[in-house]
Every structure is written in C-alpha cells, then in structure tokens.
Specification:
Immunoglobulin-like; five-stranded antiparallel sheet; 570 residues; 11 helices; alpha+beta
C-alpha cells in the first residue's frame, strides 16, 4: 500500500501542465538505474480522438519498450470529462542526465523532461557481463575484393538467463554479399567452472568493393537474476556485439588483366563423358556428352568464368547447354560449382582430341597466382568421315548430276512411260522395273535420314539457346547483375557458334545497340573506378535486344555465319 501511495505522489509531483492545462506529462521516476525502465504518461485533456505520436527523437537516448494508448469519458453531476492517455515505457541507452524531448500531440506539444540514469555498481556490472555475453570472430581482417571472409557469432548464457525476441539474423553490410552457413547450432560448454548454453551462427561475407568494410553491431534482449543489497531481482539487459572494420584489398597488380578475377583457397576441374569415349572407340556421327565441373573452395559458383575450349571444328560439332551453378553452404565455408555440359558429334575418323583448358585464379591463403588445368582428351573414332558421306549423298540428288545425265528424245520418254504403265496395268514386274523402284526408294530413305540427322543437333542447339536466353533475361529483370558476364558469353556462343570475341562482334553487327549494352555491363565490373550505370538502362536495353525479332537481312546473315553441320568438299 505504501509503495502504491509513493507511486501516485511521484506522478503528481512530476505533473507538468502545458497549453492551458490541455496536456500533462508525468514520469514514474525521475532517477533510475541503467538497467531499469521508466514510464512516461502524456494525458491529452478534453480529447476524444487518439493521435499518432512521432517518437523518432526519443529513440536517441532511449529504447522504446512499449507504447499503449487509452481513452476515458466520464459524465458526473452534469459535467463531462474526457481524455486520452499515451503510456510509453522507456529503457535508457546510456547513463547520465538524459533528455526526453518535446513530443507533439496533434497541434499541442509537451515540454522536455530530464531523467537521471545511475550506472550500476562495477561488481554488479561484472556479474551481469558474466551471465550473458557475445563473442564474435573473423577468419581474416585483411581480405581481397570478392574473397570470402568467415564470420562466427556466439551467444553465451548461463542458467537462469531468459532470452527474448530470438537471435539476430545475418548482418546487413553495404557493398557486400552475406551468405548464411548452415543453421543456428545450440550446444553447451564449460568455462571457468560455469556451464553455459551457446548459440552459434556462421556467415560468409563477400565484399564487392575495395576499401574499409564495416560489420555493424547487433543486439538482443535478455533478462538476468541479480543479487543486489541481499535482494534478488530480475533485470532486463541488452547484449550486443562490437562493430568490426575489415580492410578489403583491390585486385593485385600482378594478376593478369585479361583474365577474370577469381579469388579462392582451392580450384579443381574434373570432367566425365557419357558414354565413356576414353575407354574405347566410337563411330563417326555418334553423339557423346562432356560434363566439366569446376569446384571453387571459399567462393560461389557464379564467380567462375566459362572455360575457353577451342574445339577443332573439322573434327567435332559442339552444342553446349546453359551452365549450371551450385553453392554448398551447409558446411563451415562456401563451396561453389560451375557445371558445363557439351554435346559433341564426331565428324571424321582417327585419333581425335578435345583440347586442354587452363583456369587462372588467386590463392587467398598464400597470396599468389595459380593455374588449374583441364587436360586434353584423346578419342579414337572409326568409320567414314561425315563430309565424304554427305558429299556422296548430295551428288546422288544434285541438279548438276541430273542435268549431266544422257538426254533421251521425247518420243523415247513417251514410249518408256507407256511401257511402264503397261507393265503396271498387267501386273508384270520386270527386273528392270524392280531395280528402278528399289534405287528410288533407297535414295528417298537416304535423303530423309540425312535431313533428320542434320536437324537433330540444330534442334538441340536451339533449345539450349532458348533456355540460356530466358535465364539471362530473367536475371537482368531481377536486377541481379553480379557475375552476369559469363552467362552473356554463353548466350552469344550458343547464338553464333563462334568464340567469345567474334560472337560479340557478330551481335553488334546484327544489333548495333548491343555495343551500348555490353559497354554498360563491362562498366559495372568491379575493375571500373567510375560511377556505375543505371540498372534500369541495362534492363531496358536487355529487354529490347533479347526479345527483338530478327529482320530478314539479319536472319540471312546469321544463317550464313552458322557453322555447317556437314561441310562440303570440292
């Protein structure tokens, strides 16, 4: 009862009348400890409607723990009274004399108030710090741009500590990509004779620009039991981490300027074939698939550039599928994979070879340049070259051959036709007629098979091109421009069947606006020390270029630039 009376006395003493008694403010206490909270009550006399309060400035010195609004209306002895109460629970952010600024309530305003926040005794503060605390570690504080930085955040709490609000999520860092590694792990640990519960969170940070990278602090709310003056009380505390600055280096000067930047701790390249063409011979015209997997440790699959494989066009025809990118984030670091699949058709017999390829990358552990090589593959092919078979088949039906055949007189042709009609009408099939029918049937079957065989790789290529076009357009529409150049390169190689540089030139010749589009993408690279272009402009150009239908002249030019499936020999 005494405590209740004391509370109301304090409220009455702290009452401040403003604006002709229209607003009054009161505090539950004018002096509190740093872990305690204070209640601010604002009463709007005569009001019947609530207002929305702007508490932005109040958050400079206090955490807002609660904000409740209530309305009252009374009619006593012919007199009416109404008011609106705004009750705001505050927890101080620091010690000392803290100011509660003026707060607007509609057209009226309160007067500033002052609260004295007394610091805890050092012994009490040490006890609380030992009950619940954060520990935060980083794999390195001096990293490379687009390189991996591992971050581990651990919350330690002892018996009796109550945690509120759940764990903080991944840190939001400007100019960096943050990937969560696995899920939160709960465990127990013994430290200094005390048993602690531990919540562990792991993240991988990839800075996208050089300079100083700042990892902001995070905090959470907890409640602890504290023995003070022989009395046990529960205190609400906020546990936080410290901000961390990390130095991010630019691309080293000794890294080749013509090679895509690839920082990692390890890079491996493997390949497989379906069917396995390395264990035996195959025939000319057989189709096989090469699957190449590039695995990078400590980075994502999107940073891996496409392999440059100069396949001999006179030995093979290749029809690549869009690359597949995968990231393994369930372990203690990121492991990225880029998987490329190419469908090949052998064009000639003999000991053919798929060339080797080299990938340049930067070892972030030893700070040195490294190379990873995909070895060349020898393939034994038997049969007759497709070029000669195609030539023979074409000679069987070419207009030149038919025009070079001996010409018979009209009377002879009429007589032969009449004899053929007579033979058919009398159901007499002579050996000569049977031979003619058989030869004609064979020619028709050969032409049909050749056409079907020629169409199959073209259709495979067109399907792969359409998938790649949709993937590229979708990524641009989602404004995801990170490492988009490899996907553009794959799209152009599929579209024109040429190397990267020649395919770019062909696209610009077809659609001149492609030069501006490619320039903007190149300008968005981390190497460019200029203002990055508008993403809306890139999206506008991409939508126009990738959805535009080719004109008749472009189609003729493009069809002429495509490599022939069966090159003619003279």
């Amino acid at each position: 009862m005494v405590a209740v009376l004391r509370y109301w006395v304090l409220l009455l003493l702290g009452t401040t009348c403003l604006g002709h008694a229209e607003l009054s403010t009161r505090l539950s206490s004018n002096s509190i400890e740093e872990l305690e909270s204070v209640r601010l009550v604002i009463r709007d006399h005569g009001a019947q409607q609530t207002e929305t309060l702007d508490l932005t400035e109040l958050q400079n010195n206090f955490h807002i723990m609660g904000n409740n609004t209530s309305k009252q209306y009374q009619y006593i002895n012919g007199r009416t009274q109404s008011w609106v109460d705004y009750q705001i629970t505050l927890q101080p952010k620091r010690t000392g004399d803290l100011t509660i600024p003026a707060i607007n309530v509609g057209t009226k305003s309160t007067s500033p108030l002052t609260v004295r926040v007394v610091p805890l005794a050092p012994a009490t503060r040490q006890k609380i710090d030992e009950l619940v605390f954060y520990e935060q570690t980083f794999s390195n504080l001096d990293a490379y741009v687009q390189g991996q930085i591992l971050m581990q955040r651990q919350l330690f709490y002892s018996n009796g500590v109550q945690l509120y609000g759940g764990q903080p999520t991944a840190p939001k860092i400007k100019d960096a990509v943050v990937i969560t590694l696995g899920e939160n792990r709960a465990s127990t640990v013994q430290r200094d004779g005390k048993l602690y519960g531990v919540v562990t969170q792991n993240y991988a940070i990839f800075p996208e620009s050089s300079g100083t990278l700042t990892v902001p602090s995070v905090e959470m709310t907890a409640s602890v039991r504290v023995l003070n003056n022989n009395r046990v009380s529960r205190k609400g505390v906020r546990v936080s981490t410290e901000p961390q600055a990390i130095n991010v280096r630019a691309v080293p000067d000794n890294y080749p300027r013509n090679e895509p930047w690839l920082p990692a701790t390890d890079v491996t390249v493997t390949q497989s074939f379906e069917p396995d063409v390395t264990q035996g011979s195959i025939k000319v015209g057989d189709t096989f698939t090469q699957t190449i997997q590039v695995t990078v440790t400590s980075n994502t699959g999107s940073i891996v550039p496409p392999l440059n494989l100069a396949v001999p066009e006179e030995q093979f025809r290749q029809y690549p599928d869009p690359p597949e990118l995968k990231d393994d984030t369930l372990g203690n670091e990121v492991i990225g994979r880029r998987i490329e699949r190419r469908n090949f058709i052998a064009l000639q017999p003999g000991a053919l070879s798929l060339p080797s390829s080299e990938m340049v990358w930067w070892d972030t552990q030893s700070n040195r340049l490294r190379n990873t090589t995909l070895p060349a593959t020898s393939i034994s092919v038997t049969g007759t070259a497709i070029t000669s078979q195609s030539n023979e088949a074409s000679q069987a039906i070419t207009p030149e051959q038919s025009s070079a055949a001996p010409q018979s007189s009209p009377s002879t042709s009429i007589t032969e036709n009449q004899n053929l009609a007579t033979d058919l009408s009398t159901s007499r099939i002579t050996p000569g007629l049977l031979g003619k029918l058989g030869l004609g049937l064979i020619v028709i079957v050969m032409v049909w098979l050749s056409w079907r065989y020629a169409q199959r790789p073209y259709q495979m290529r067109q399907r792969a091109l359409e998938r790649c076009r949709k993937d590229l357009l979708k990524k641009i529409q989602n404004q995801n421009f990170d490492n988009i150049q490899p996907l553009v390169s794959d799209y152009l190689k599929l579209r024109y069947g040429l190397t990267h540089n020649k395919a770019r030139e062909a696209w610009i010749n077809d659609q001149p606006e492609a030069a501006t589009f490619l320039h903007l993408l190149d300008q968005s690279s981390y190497r460019q020390k200029v203002k990055k272009p508008s993403k809306d402009r890139i999206l506008q150009l991409a939508t126009h270029l990738l959805n535009a239908k080719a004109t008749k002249a472009q189609k003729e030019k493009r069809s002429a630039s495509l490599p022939a499936l069966y090159p003619q020999t003279r």
